[in-house]
Amino acid sequence: MAGFGIFQDTIDQDVYKYYADGEWKVSSSGNSVIILNPSTRQPQYKIQACTQDEVNKAVQSAKEAQSIWAKTPLWKRAETLHKAAAILKEHKESIAGCIVKEIAKPHKDAITEVVRSADLISYCAEEGVRILGEGKMLVSDSFPGNERNKMCLVSKIPLGIVLAIPPFNYPVNLAVSKIAPALIAGNALVLKPPTQGAVAGIHMVHCFHLAGFPKGLISCITGKGSEIGDFLTMHPGVNCISFTGGDTGIAISKKAGMIPLQMELGGKDVCIVLEDADLDLAAANIVKGGFSYSGQRCTAVKLVLVMETVADVLVEKVVTLMSKLTIGAPEDDCDITAVVTESSAKFIEGLVDDARVKGATFCQEYRREGNLIWPLLVDNVRPDMRLAWEEPFGPVVPVVRITSVEEGIHHCNASNLALQGCVFTRDINKAIMISDAMETGTVQINSAPSRGPDHFPFQGLRDSGIGSQGITNSINMMTKVKTTVINLPLPSYTMG
């Protein structure tokens, strides 16, 4: 682990420690979890396999620390967050190096993720001061039948302990998008990082540790989902869960108690291309949206619904741009790198095989070596094919040819996944009407789906999520309303 400098404290005999009560610790289980490098499919890192008892202790420490943190002045909370952001940015190279090895994200994109995460923390600190520094006063005589003898003071207070569970594809950014709002709002935070991406998450947490947050306020619990997954999400000490991932989120929502849930699950993000669209713009966004980070993004373009009259031209333009994509190692900043696990690669191959058997048109020869899958555009996909509905989470983009806008909208709204969508047209009236008809959390007009900027609201419908993210929405969601009513004597006079 040479070259990691300050991060040496996080490792013990080649196994990364977990973080609780302000210290880096070795689990009493004596067990570890192996993280495979997606590119080589060889062991890269090991992390602690924490026990349920260690979860209990972390939650108890968080509870004690939160009661003190909630009383910490808002400006001081913000100041400490700014310090964490600066430390994170200072060590972007080391953290990005872990991202490259753990999830095969291209190096330049890994650096961007860390810098973006630091910027998110700083923005969150400022936004938190603005939101939480405001209160509201209501007077009673604005409601019929009441005198002006009551004053209601309304403020926002923390929920308590927030459990944050980010996904593998943005192990730092989607962790801090949960951590920073929770902390500025006065909460404690328990992080359960994904297995792939856990070491980058550990290094990110160490930056918060160095920033000087109170002992016990932040925990980073690693381990096997089978051992501590349900135990964490059903823990009576947890007051809020913020989760980003796949179907696991649906199971969590059914098991969690009466606590606020913020969940961003899967997406089958459709791209509707009309006859009057700028086809060069649409093609560029389909390639960028469909193949960035090998399609392993919840907001990736996962289905193109194109009007039949322009389909041939659009497909040709997309194929031409795809031919320029580079395929290979993340260290070389290639556009297409290995998908995260062998099981992911096999799942994607299953979708491709199904489309082939049912008569889809392959615009390139399907090719796979280990976890590395070459980018593939699949044309003439029909509704009876799995690719029309299931989320590949890989570098495969299906094309469905439609004969009317209504057909495209119907297909979009028939999906159980409804995160984002996009529409390409030069007619702003059509764009707004189609956006209004699409039952998705967000619709992008003349651009591929995207989660950012990070202060924009971000949410899904149906099986794509619960609640809304984005910095402002997350801060509000991780607080509760507190009212104090001042009862004054009834006035002893009447107005003449």
Automatic annotation (TrEMBL):
Database matches in SUPFAM superfamilies: ALDH-like
KW NADP (keyword) present: yes
GO molecular function per UniProt: glyceraldehyde-3-phosphate dehydrogenase (NADP+) (non-phosphorylating) activity; lactaldehyde dehydrogenase (NAD+) activity
EC number of this enzyme: 1.2.1.9
Domain Aldehyde dehydrogenase: 27-483
Reaction catalysed by this enzyme: D-glyceraldehyde 3-phosphate + NADP(+) + H2O = (2R)-3-phosphoglycerate + NADPH + 2 H(+)
Pfam family, one: Aldedh
Top enzyme category: oxidoreductase
Keywords associated with the record: Cytoplasm, NADP, Oxidoreductase
Entry's Gene Ontology cellular component terms: cytoplasm
Compartment(s) where it occurs, according to its Swiss-Prot or TrEMBL record: Cytoplasm
InterPro entries in alphabetical order: Ald_DH/histidinol_DH, Ald_DH_C, Ald_DH_CS_CYS, Ald_DH_CS_GLU, Ald_DH_N, Aldehyde_DH_dom, ALDH-related_metabolic_enz
Active site (record annotation): 264
Sequence similarity: Belongs to the aldehyde dehydrogenase family.
Protein name as annotated: NADP-dependent glyceraldehyde-3-phosphate dehydrogenase
Species annotation: Ceratopteris richardii
